[in-house]
Amino acid sequence: MAQLWGGRFTTETDKKVYDFNASISFDKKLYQQDIEGSIAHVAMLGKQNILKKEEVRQIIRGLAGIREDIENGVLEITEEYEDIHSFVEANLIERIGSVGKKLHTGRSRNDQVALDMRLYVRLELLYIDVYVKKMLETLLAQMEENLDTIMPGFTHMQKAQPVTLANHLGAYYEMFRRDRLRLKDIYDRMNYCPLGTGALAGTTYPLDRIYTSELLGFYGPTLNSMDSVSDRDYIIEFLSALSLIMMHLSRFSEEIITWNSNEYNFVEIDDAFSTGSSIMPQKKNPDIAELVRGKTGRVYGSLVSMLTTMKGLPLAYNKDMQEDKEVTFDAIETVKCCLILFEGMLSTMKYNKDVMKQSASGGFTNATDVADYLVGKGIPFRDAHTIVGKIVLLCIERKKSIEDLTLEQFQAFSSAFEKDIYDAISMESCVNRRQTLGAPGRKVMEIVINAYKEDLKQDWQDEE
To answer: What is the pLDDT of residues 130-148, one digit of tens each?
Structure first.
């Protein structure tokens, strides 16, 4: 059993205890970050004349060789080691001899693992951001294509008012846009380097933490040694952001599942993103959307797990914090997979525009516009509301849409109705007369789409 701390102990650790304590089975995922951090640490030790230049060269060469051999499959990360840190250090010593034992000078596993996880989360955050941006680009393209695609808007799962598909998709654009802003916010807050803070109280070696931070691409070093090794806020924030992304994907999935049903028939999911039934040959199931909806709870579980793990921990480092890795790794992989597959499904999905428009014509979605028409003729809104309620009741009894009524039938409710009522309550008029910013009217939607285009051009990752 390869471990870094045997000097204090006179008997060997029980095998079951060792296995329970070990993290190599999952933290081996951090080998790149561990080696990257070690190279920066050694370079700083050389700069500060804590290590000789030749020692620095040997260690860095050895670390680079370990990384290359892992990536080429020559060196396997095995579970005889306690964690990724002991694996790297033991292999370094085996390759370059006793000079490799100087790698850990001025460093603890506490600040080492804090660095590794921060580097890993920072990188994966950037990947997630790329996938969310791709989703925004797909949504924006579909919005442009559907400025005139009329569909019913809903409240309480009931048809409410006519909108456009562009406006509906724009709601999801806003959600994912906020997700990107959250990711940037988390990146800016977490991008500080904990390396050099030791186990919890720093070190007596004259480390240059600013230099190490620069080598690793951080804004600067963290400013409190105890917080540095025990902080997992950035992981919790990231898991929270991932949970919100999944919540948005799940809401969208729910709508696509509904739209894909025979009763709605608003969309047709491409064969590449559907599956069939083992017994019913006619079935074409929206499995991707259903799985995304289902996996949302899995990501929520990772967030709740981390919140629960951290809620009672005193300062500074505690072994409980080892539980941060598996849930974080799983949540990241789940969200990446869901974003990629959902965007693929969305980009290939076909909208049945005629069905959508026909659906908007039912359900009295233009009732509010009838009331607004009467207000325009000088009738107080509350009276207009009452009049239209009676009109809707008549239409329900006679199984008609409002626009199917004759002018005489309209005028039986109010003499204010004239021939122009039919133009006022057509689906196109109901949509395009709504010109307040954020509404589905074509002119304002074009303004919003242009603003989104400019927003996407100014990519925050390009600024880093």
So the answer is: 999 999 999 999 999 999 9
Task: In whole angstroms, give the CA distance from residue 390 to residue 379.
Answer: 15
Active-site choice (25, 104, 156, 385): 156
Q: Which token pair is 270? A: 């491409």
Which architecture characterizes domain 110-203+223-358 according to CATH? Up-down Bundle (1.20)
| CATH class assigned to 360-445 | mainly alpha
Closest CA to 364 of 217, 196, 197, 153: 153
Clarify whether 414 is annotated catalytic.
no
The angle formed by the CA atoms of residues 265, 268 and 273, to the nearest 5 degrees, is 140
Strand 150-155 vs strand 158-164: parallel, antiparallel, or unpaired?
antiparallel
Choose the catalytic residue: 277, 414, 415, 426: 277
203 φ, ψ (degrees, to nearest 5): -150, 160
| Catalytic site includes residue 213 | no
Reply yes or no on domain 6-105 having CATH 1.20.1560.10.
Answer: no
pLDDT tens track for 438-450: 999 999 999 999 9
